[in-house]
């Protein structure tokens, strides 16, 4: 059985940014809207990562941001629809509790990976988030 060898060269942030823009623009997509405060926080965290590569807490900051984006996305995609469908208080609260557990699980898993990333890998995540947030 053949095994694939892992290339030791990492793509540059510019190459990742270029490929992300191309693929994101050419594929169908779903977007969600979040608060202006979360958009400002997103810009602040990503700009800090790009401007200050030596800062030690970028992984934690990106993890916190990703957790907030996950929460906002789950709320927008799932809970907002239930509220608009007027499924009732008990059903809505049950769904909210279930989504809360899912958000905690996904956020916990993503945090474990993001906090271990080096600066180059965090820049790839940053580029991806910026591509998703394109206006």
Q: Number of domains in the coordinates? A: 1
Question: How many DSSP E strands?
Answer: 0
Radius of gyration: 18 Å
Q: What overall form do the CA principal axes indicate? A: globular
Proportion of strand residues: under 5%
Helix content: over 70%
This entry's quaternary arrangement is single chain
* Main β sheet profile: none
Annotation field: number of helices: 5
Summarize the helix and strand pattern as letters: HHHHH
Which structural class do you get from the secondary structure elements?
Answer: mainly alpha
Give the N-terminus to C-terminus distance in angstroms.
46 Å
Unreliable spans: 1-10
Tell me, rounded to a whole number, the average pLDDT: 84
Please supply descriptive tags for the structure shown above.
single chain
Quick structural summary:
The protein has 135 residues and is mostly helical.
